[in-house]
Amino acid sequence: MIKARWIERTLNPRFELGTSKGPINARTVWYLIAWNEDQPQLKGIGEAALFPGHSKEFPADVKLKLTELCERTDNWAERAMTDLVDAPSVRFAVEQCLHDLEAGGTKTLFPSDFTLGKRGIPINGLVWMGDKRTMKQRIREQIDDGYTTVKMKIGAIGIDDELELLRDVRKEFGADDVILRVDANGAFSARQSPEVLKRLAELQVQSIEQPIAPGLYEAMEELCANSPLPIALDEDLIGLNTHDAKTDLLDHVKPQHIVIKPSLVGGWNATREWIELAKARGIGWWITSALESSIGLNAVAQFTATLNVSTAQGLGTGKVYANNIPSPLRAERGFLRYRPEEEWDLSLLD
Q1: What CATH number has the domain spanning 121-349?
Q2: What pLDDT does 20 receive?
Q3: Alpha carbon 217 to chain centroid distance?
Q4: What does the pLDDT look like over 77-88, one tens digit per residue?
Q5: 80: buried, middle or exposed (CB in 10 Å: 19+, 13-18, 0-12)?
Q6: What pLDDT is attached to residue 111?
Q7: Smallest Cα–Cα separation from 301: which of 334, 345, 347, 335?
Q8: What is the side-by-side strand order in the sheet with 27-36?
Q9: If DSSP codes are grouped into helix, strand and coil, which group holds residue 159?
Q10: Which residues of the chain are under the pLDDT cut of 70?
Q11: What are the catalytic residues?
């Protein structure tokens, strides 16, 4: 018989993580831990990492669902297809936990050349918001560290200063040398967005994520139809947990790309559905983390590795935490790699 418990942990960033929605100075996540009574030393672990301000879930919902799951462990697979559909972070934690338990608690969820250390996943460097001088330094650090795709958060310090930062990159590196992406997190209004998009396109920015707030479907549809650079939907995907809702979004808004966060859309199966729908419509896609700890990031990364991606994914966030769970994951020279010779240290979860 399977037994289970859950614990809550606060992750502390090494520096303030600036976004257009405000700074992130701490991050709360929840771990679902399960074991068989006859082999209690082998534990499966899954992470629920909802994102306040983005997720439709609330911490109280997560804790209630986790408590129910621990009280009764024989119906997890059924619940993953019913009430947990609308609790995507918990649904993903269940997927991870059961998969890890089947793998003997090894955290090798999807064996591949990635988990053998033979192949890395291409990732973008991420430039968090800060003052202009700090952001300029961070851009240089990402490029010096070997990232050929750099994503910059925009929408907080002023578009003129942000464009100047991007312009400085373009003075030194062409679009074939450094791919630039920007992430607005819905910072701009529908009225000001066309001019912002025009100015970004002049700097050969590859794409912009979520230029306007989620839910403004008619305005986003118009932007996607007329934008001089590709638009990627991000927050607009969150909360659309049925097949019909997903197809309606893609068919009506017609974005050029979508950005999929497994922790916020409901895990691996939900991610596969988004990818299949996007491919059928000629829409590009990539996968990003949602600032999970190493447990959740490992689950996202190992799954992503099975998709044989060639474009940069957003999976280089593990090193932002001072108290992250030590793991074999390493962001190196524009790739996320798994070092199987290095062990997991799960003592923080005891």
Answers
A1: 3.20.20.120
A2: 62
A3: 22
A4: 999 999 999 999
A5: buried
A6: 97
A7: 335
A8: 2-11, 27-36, 39-48
A9: helix
A10: 20-21
A11: 153, 261
Q: Report yes or no: 290 and 51 within 8 Å, Cβ to Cβ.
A: yes
CB atoms within 10 A of CB 242: 11
Strand order in the sheet with 149-153: 125-127, 149-153, 179-183, 207-209, 231-233, 257-260, 284-287
Whats the size of the chain, residue-wise?
Answer: 350
Backbone angles phi, psi at 308, to 5 degrees: 55, 50
Distance separating alpha carbons of residues 261 and 266, to the nearest angstrom = 9
The rounded distance, in Å, linking the Cα atoms of 143 and 149 is 8
Instruction: Give CA separation, 244 vs 83, 91, 108, 116, in Å.
Output: 17, 19, 33, 38
The answer to whether 123 touches 331, Cβ cutoff 8 Å, is yes
Give the β-pairing of 125-127 and 27-36.
unpaired
What topology does CATH give the domain 2-102? Enolase-like; domain 1 (3.30.390)
Q: Where are the domains positioned within the chain?
A: 2-102, 121-349
Could you tell me which of 75, 5, 8, 1 has the C-alpha nearest to residue 34? 5
3-class secondary structure, 205: coil
Kindly provide the b/e burial profile for residues 123-146, where b requires at least 16 CB atoms within 10 angstroms of the residue's own CB.
Answer: bbbbbbbbeeebbbebbeebbeee
Closest to 158 (Cα-Cα) out of 199, 123, 126: 199
Structure tokens at 114: 């990635």
d(CA 223, CA 236): 14
SS3 content of the chain, % helix, strand, coil (to 5): 40, 20, 40
Selection from 204, 151, 147, 136 nearest residue 175 by Cα: 204
CA angle, 317 as apex, 313 and 322 as ends, to 5°? 170
Cα of first residue to Cα of last residue in the chain, in angstroms, is 21
Whole-angstrom Cα Rg for the chain: 20
How much is the pTM? 0.96
Task: Quote the CA–CA distance of 101 and 115 in Å, as a whole number.
Answer: 17
Q: Which of 283, 226, 228 is nearest to 251 (CA)?
A: 283
pLDDT of res. 219: 98
